Amino acid sequence: MSITNQLQTADDPYAAIRLDNQICFPLYACSKELIRQYRPSLDKLNLTYTQYLVMMVLWEHGSMIEKELGERVHLASGTLAPLLKRMESQGLVRRKRTPADERTLQVDLTPSGEALKEKALAVPLEMGGCLNITDDEAAFLYKILYKALASMENRGL
Question: Measuring CA to CA, which residue among 134, 147, 155, 127 is closest to residue 23?
Fold first, then answer.
């Protein structure tokens, strides 16, 4: 997505495909950098960023069907299944078939996974100064990003 549909002009027909004119690039680069900033904090918990996202959802909800968990963290089952398998081997989660439908997997926290929640409280505090923006700017960015995400989900792309 470019910053405007009016970039393409007779003077410069290629303006719309310049990297600096893309909204997607600073989002991508910022996301990549932000995840890199998380690494030292998450290394202390022996979690990757994606595992941290899964753990946050499970800490909030306690137990979830794998499909719902994938939808919540925006991961396809082909990505989520191996991730959960690694987390299970780390002793953080347990996956089990539901009695109602053997094809459905339920994901539960183990006692070790639940105990990690206390240590994870340090992560947001350590990340607090990562973005040099005001509280109002952060709130606006949050609102805009979720609005953009919702509009993309509604388009079904």
Answer: 147
